[in-house]
Structure formats: structure tokens, C-alpha cells
């Protein structure tokens, strides 16, 4: 790298540091996030209103994301039977119940009815499975597990549907049937939860 290129790189780097990556103007009330990215306070507030507390540059979550999941209940129990791929432990059975109700302003059709659901999911009853269970409980409390929309299986609108956090809804059949064995599942679901700020 020549001295000229080095100088150019430094100058452009300095210039970038003085400008907000959202409005591209000089900072007004500079705010720095934990990830060290910096923004104008107003620009960051607008980005947060649009996309939640997620850094617009590096996508790190800097606050608590609250979803639009309707009210419902999450419970679990354990069984002695084991899941394929986890013969050394029992099974955690998670039950989700979301009753039917009326959509709010956060949903696609405010004021219209939505159809509720009862879903069951399975985890191995080992250390990692129990860790995932605790993370899923937090995700449920933050209203991130379900949403209201169009069902991928039936094509019907105004349904309570899964919201991008993968669940195993079958004890067998492998990944193609949303079941076990699937050795990558627990790490995959933890990555999805981490992307929503739950870790």
C-alpha cells in the first residue's frame, strides 16, 4: 500500500467517523451502542421505531425486542421416553395454547378475528435442551414465538402462525418432518434466538 493510499484510507475513515451512517450528515447528539456503532440520537430512534432495537449497521440487538404474539399460555412436562438421537435422556414436551381473539393494530387486519392454535414441541431433557427451554420461555414472554398472518400449511389468512423460531413438532422423522434426529437443531434454535436478542 503506497503512502498516498494509506493517507486516503485514513482520511476516509476519519470522515466516516464524523458522519452518521443513517443520515450521512455530521452527528447531532451522537449516541454510541454497545457494539460501538454511532448514530444521531433521532436517526437511531427512527430506526428503532421501524425495526426494533437492532443496530442498523451490524444487526446486534441492543434492547428488548417485543413481538406481536397474541396472549396465550406456554407449559411443559417431561416424559421418560427418549427422542431419536438422545437415547440417554427423557423428553421435554412443550404445550402452547393461543386462544382465538381480535387482531390489534400490530396485526395485518386490526379488528378482525384470528383463529387460535394449540401446538406441541419437543426437546431432549438434557442440559442443552433445558437451556433452550429457558430461552424459549423468554421468547414467549417477549411475544416472539407466534404471530398472526397467513398459514403456510393451509393458506388461510388471520391465523396464529409460527414466527421464525424453529420448533420440533414431531418426535421422529428427522428435519424434513420437523422431528428428530437432527443433531444441528439445538445450536440452530439458539442462533435464531440470539438474533432476536435472547441468549
UniProtKB/TrEMBL annotation:
One GO CC term on file: cytoplasm
Top EC class for this record: transferase
Localization: Cytoplasm
Acyltransferase found in the keyword field: no
Keyword hit for Zinc-finger: yes
Domain RING-type: 20-59
Family annotation (Gene3D superfamilies): 3.30.390.130, Zinc/RING finger domain, C3HC4 (zinc finger)
InterPro entries: Deltex_C, Deltex_C_sf, Deltex_fam, Znf_C3HC4_RING-type, Znf_RING, Znf_RING/FYVE/PHD
One Pfam family matching this protein: zf-C3HC4
Catalysed reaction, written as an equation: S-ubiquitinyl-[E2 ubiquitin-conjugating enzyme]-L-cysteine + [acceptor protein]-L-lysine = [E2 ubiquitin-conjugating enzyme]-L-cysteine + N(6)-ubiquitinyl-[acceptor protein]-L-lysine
EC number: 2.3.2.27
Main location: cytoplasm
One GO BP: protein ubiquitination
Biochemical pathway: Protein modification; protein ubiquitination
Any one Gene Ontology molecular-function term assigned to this protein's record: ubiquitin protein ligase activity
SMART domains linked: RING
Keyword tags: Cytoplasm, Metal-binding, Transferase, Zinc, Zinc-finger
Protein family according to the UniProt entry: Belongs to the Deltex family.
PANTHER family according to UniProt: DELTEX-RELATED
Name the UniProt record assigns to this protein: E3 ubiquitin-protein ligase
Gene this protein is translated from: LOC100706363
Amino acid at each position: 500500500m503506497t503512502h498516498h493510499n494509506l493517507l486516503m484510507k485514513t482520511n476516509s475513515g476519519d470522515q466516516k467517523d464524523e458522519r452518521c451512517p443513517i443520515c450521512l450528515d455530521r452527528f447531532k447528539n451522537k449516541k454510541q451502542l454497545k457494539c460501538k456503532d454511532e448514530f444521531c440520537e433521532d436517526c437511531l430512534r427512527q430506526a428503532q421505531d421501524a425495526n426494533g432495537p437492532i443496530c442498523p449497521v451490524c444487526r446486534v440487538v441492543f434492547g428488548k425486542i417485543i413481538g406481536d404474539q397474541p396472549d396465550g399460555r406456554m407449559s411443559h412436562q417431561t416424559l421418560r421416553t427418549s427422542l431419536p438421537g438422545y437415547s440417554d435422556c427423557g423428553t421435554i414436551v412443550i404445550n402452547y395454547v393461543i386462544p382465538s381473539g381480535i387482531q390489534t393494530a400490530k396485526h395485518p387486519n386490526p379488528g378482525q378475528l384470528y383463529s387460535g392454535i394449540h401446538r406441541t414441541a419437543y426437546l431432549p431433557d438434557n442440559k442443552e435442551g433445558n437451556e433452550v427451554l429457558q430461552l424459549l420461555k423468554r421468547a414467549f414472554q417477549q411475544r416472539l414465538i407466534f404471530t398472526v398472518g397467513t398459514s403456510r400449511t393451509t393458506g388461510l389468512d388471520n391465523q396464529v402462525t409460527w414466527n421464525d423460531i424453529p420448533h420440533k413438532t414431531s418426535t421422529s422423522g428427522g428435519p424434513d418432518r420437523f422431528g428428530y434426529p437432527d443433531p444441528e437443531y439445538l445450536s440452530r434454535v439458539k442462533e435464531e434466538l440470539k438474533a432476536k436478542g435472547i441468549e
